[in-house]
Amino acid sequence: MTLLSSTPDLLAFISLSLLPSWRWLAVAERLRAGDPAADVFVRLAEEHWPGEPDEVDAIRARSSAALARARTASLTPITWSDPAYPVALAAIADPPPVIWVRGQTEALNRSAVAIVGSRAASPYAMTVASTLASDLASRGVAVVSGLARGVDSAAHRGAVDADGVTVAVLGSGLDVIYPPEHRTLVEDIERRGAVVSEQIPGTPPLRWCFPLRNRIISGLSRAVVVIEAGRKSGSLITARSALEQGREVLAVPGNILSGRNRGAHALLRDGAKIVESADDILGELGIGSGRPGVPGSSGSTERDHRIARRDPVLDCLVPGEPSDLDEIAERSGLTPPRLLPRLMELELQGVIARVGGGRFVRVDRNVLG
User: Fold this and answer.
1) Omega into 179 within 30° of 0, i.e. cis?
2) Number of helical (H) and strand (E) elements in the chain, helices listed first
């Protein structure tokens, strides 16, 4: 297991993740203000359990036990302050203080699209999910989903079969695979992609964990595609999270007689874009259909001219002064879904660097000549 933070700092972040979920907005607010994780934990824990030091000690003990269990299972923890933390996820209102990862951590910072839908999926929905995922993965876009039965697993398998990258977000600890029949799928995913959870190792698949993980599925993605969702589908929670996070929401139309598609069709009535092929998704996100394996590529001519002498994103950054996604979006006038792929391109070109807390810094003001 690779530790990307010092152990005391890491334990503080794990302790923060064990606070009640309604405290997470306050956690994010204090971390963004620059407060050390250990100080944030002490302050919020004492507010939540005033005069009960045993509760605080119990949380710290659980954090140490979780880290020991992670070492045994070869799980990688990534804290909010680490440069490896997914920048798209760091930008949401309530990002997990720490995420646990199996597989390739770099998969979490790729341009990504979530595909979600019914667990009791029809053959039509399974085929659509697999086809869309395969087409997206073959063009270098990561496919994010929740490893559930039905549409989720079909999306993961479609990406794997295309030899692409897919990210599975669990509602349990990473050493408690759910559903259990997807253990082999998890092994296939982590060869090129990643399996992620905000729950500490050993956490069983509790009902309340799954709605929470949906905000992570959308938070890692530039867009969410809903396939065959009923009116009470958990996929609609993911869609709502996506809208709150400024992500695009798209839906696949389906049979009007079965009742399986009422949730997805409601999204379409409310303005979600119709998806009939991967090109619809890529077009909505402004991603070209260039050669496979190059996200956002639409030919060498466009790519060669992408960095101009006056770049609106680079102009928002001052060398040596980190800025977070919201600050750059406000200065540039670009929405986060449009801004994220541009930041990733600039990072790959060495013009900017990613630092802790989902922030970016310009590293050379003269690089554009």
Assistant:
1) yes
2) 15, 12
Residue 45 CB-half CA count within 13 A: 23
Indicate the pLDDT class of residue 6, thresholds 50, 70 and 90.
low
Cα–Cα distance measured from residue 235 to residue 230, given in angstroms and rounded to the nearest whole number: 9
DSSP annotation string for 123-186? HHHHHHHHHHHHHHHHTT-EEEE---TTHHHHHHHHHHHTT--EEEE-SS-TTS-SSGGGHHHH
Using CA atoms, how far residue 160 sits from 74, 142, 144, in Å, is: 22, 10, 12
d(CA 353, CA 360): 6
Domain boundaries 306-362, CATH class: mainly alpha
Tokens of 320: 């040596």
The candidate with the shortest Cα–Cα distance to 199, out of 116, 108, 96, is 96
Q: How far apart are the first and last CA of the chain?
A: 42
In 3-state terms, the chain is what percent helix, strand and coil (to 5)?
A: 45, 15, 40
| Tokens (6 digits) for 170 | 């669990």
User: Is residue 235 scored above 90 in pLDDT?
Assistant: no
CATH code for residues 105-285: 3.40.50.450
* Whole-number Å distance between alpha carbons of 243 and 262: 19
Nearest Cα neighbor of 122 from 292, 252, 304 is 252
Taking only the tens place, the pLDDT of each residue in 68-119 is: 999 999 999 999 989 899 988 988 889 999 999 999 999 998 889 999 988 8
Supply the pLDDT for residue 313: 81
Query: Residues 159, 136: contact at Cβ < 8 Å?
Result: yes
CA dist 197 and 216 (Å) reads 9
